[in-house]
Amino acid sequence: MRRQPLALNAPTSDQLMVMPIDSPFNPYGSRFYHVTGAPNTDGTARVVGAPRTVSFTQLTIRDLAAESVETKADVFRIVGGVRGKLGKTWEWESSLFYNEVSGTDNAFPDVRESKLQAAIARTDMSAYNPFGYTFRVANGAVVADQPYTNPQSVVDSFSEVYSRSAESSIASADFRTSGTLFSLWDNEVKAAFGVEFRREELSDVRPPFSGENPASSGLDPLNNDFLLHPPRPDVFGEREVTSAYAETIVPLISSEREIPLMNSLELTASARFESYSDFGETTKPKIGVNWRPTSWLMVRGSYNEGFMAPSLAALYTSSRWSITAGAGDLDAYRNPFLNEGPYVKRTYFGGNPDLKPQESEGTTYGIVFDVPGIKGLSLTADLWSIDRTNLLGQRSTAQIDASDTALLRAYTRAQIAAGVAVNQIDIGSGATYRGDPDVQRYALTPEDRAAFAAYNAANPTNPAAPAGRIFARYQPFLNLSSSQHEGVDFGFRYAMPRQSWGRILVTSDWSYLDRSRTTLAPVNVAPTENNGLYGDGAAKWRSTTNINWDKGAWNAGLGIYHVGKTHDSGATTTQAIYESLGKPSYIEPFFTAGSTLYRLVIDPVVTYNLSIGYKFETASPTWLANTRVRLSIANLTDEPPPLTSGAFGYDAGVSQALLSGRSWSLEIVRKF
């Protein structure tokens, strides 16, 4: 990948670059200015004035080639297993698994900050000239003279490769067995047991100066030395997981017992135990019951609990930061008092080793109806509900600001009530900071104190404790939300009787999403309930229908995939515009997070896949025996992904499969 040359962005992501007075390319330096206007020793003119340094905040690095990024990824996977029997009714199997993914990123030419500063700081013609021109004095003023290209040796003096390498791996071993435990009322009670051991490892490594500066370098060890790249300490994470599970199916009543309204009754139960080296232990159950009052109707229900530990990346990814765009944003605490306007701040984000596991509870209730008189036809309907807690998320900067402001104002009121003069209130710093713990402020300057003193003198009824500007806000992963999802799944299956022309099997599964809500509950801020329906591909209706035909060695299939109406949550307008357009159907009001949004409607999408195959039997020519051939066409009608406002112009979570358009594939499988 190639992208534009790097640029300096100071004093946030990068350090200020200072051109000294004696640089031959400094248009405000000693070559062009003198306190008396005396000429240079070579006779060239100078202007009256004190020479000055030049400090650069934003600067495109002239004469630096476009950055080229090379990415290399490798995947290694090995799986092996054995299986066998224990007695007449038990089977067992065991397997070993190892998967490793590694990658490296190398970007060149990238710029070392300290070496760029050294090149700018030179005082001879080997100095770096960031202006692209030389200068001269004409008619008592310093003006541009000739275009200038820096020698390649100068550019090479601060150009280096920015490098990163990462690796993750999973190794596991398991043993499983299943069979009949015993007979209960002439019915076999079956069970399955299993154990597994898994080891996960993660590393994300950057060499010196790419990640952080070495302590012996003389540079800030908490920073790095490449333009635009924030400092990133190396990341290492690992965990070991031991798990065991047990499952059983208990047929309590069978049709042979001839009990009214009790054709059959079956109980299922399972439990899974997991022990994490970094989380402790958990045990989660699942129970279910299947009741057939008649041979053609089954009523079923289940309850389950789930557990998901945070990934190693969510736990151990090192903190990195970005800067607010443009002029920055407002300080929610200071600006109402000082009216100072926006300024640039850092925002840190990364892993959090104190995360808790995400947990869930789920229930299902449903029926299976085998239509009497029509063999092979069955209908299903299942009502389901899933509640999840401790979901991972990040507080927005607006939520952090609101929390910080609320805490600082509450502390100010408490201190004033305790008799402390408002201008003497100390809001603390570090561990004693009285605002939000994810806000880091600069120390108060004399200018800050004077500004707050002037405000408090003019506004004695609304006092404000002095506070320095925000240096950074921190957005680590947190367990700060919960969700509720409810819906109904419908199923249709019809296996037609075989005819002279073959047999057709039709299956159709439909899902109706009735509720999708997430409650975000960050500290010191009122909870926010977000309605997830329609947004990010969460259509109320989805369906998958498959029509399969087979006759002898031939088979064919047609898949029909339907995604109902959704919203482009990134394309919104105002109520005034919506009404001025006559309330068009392509815009829809939607209430979420305490307000009504007017979002663009994405129409339902239906796509088709088609396949046809043939299986050569053993009677075929030797070279074709036991060979299967299948021709498939994905996205038969060449349906384009619906246009959205996302970064890619479409919703990748919904329409990724449509991006390539109609595609053909030929599959040939031979058994030996």
What attributes characterize this protein structure?
50% strand, 34 strands, 672 residues, elongated, four-stranded mixed sheet, mainly beta, 19-stranded antiparallel sheet, single chain
Report on this structure.
- This protein has 672 residues and is mostly beta strands.
- Among the domains are: 68-111 and 158-293, no CATH class; 294-307 and 356-392 and 485-670.
- The strands form seven sheets. It has a 19-stranded antiparallel sheet that branches.
- The longest helix has 21 residues, at 397-417.
- The mean pLDDT is 91.
Short description:
This protein is mainly β. The protein is 10% helix and 50% strand.
Give the SSE map:
Elements: E1 2-3, E2 7-9, E3 17-19, E4 33-34, E5 47-48, E6 54-56, E7 58-60, E8 67-86, E9 90-111, H1 113-121, E10 133-138, E11 141-147, H2 152-156, E12 159-184, E13 187-205, E14 235-253, E15 264-276, E16 280-294, E17 297-308, H3 312-316, E18 320-323, H4 335-338, E19 346-350, E20 358-370, E21 377-393, H5 397-417, E22 439-441, H6 446-458, E23 470-476, E24 478-495, E25 503-520, E26 528-531, E27 541-551, E28 554-563, E29 566-573, H7 575-580, E30 587-592, E31 595-602, E32 605-616, E33 627-634, H8 652-655, E34 663-670
Parallel strand pairs: 4-5, 19-23
Antiparallel strand pairs: 1-8, 2-7, 3-6, 8-9, 9-12, 10-11, 12-13, 13-14, 14-15, 15-16, 16-17, 17-20, 18-19, 20-21, 21-24, 22-23, 24-25, 25-26, 25-27, 27-28, 28-32, 29-31, 30-31, 32-33, 33-34
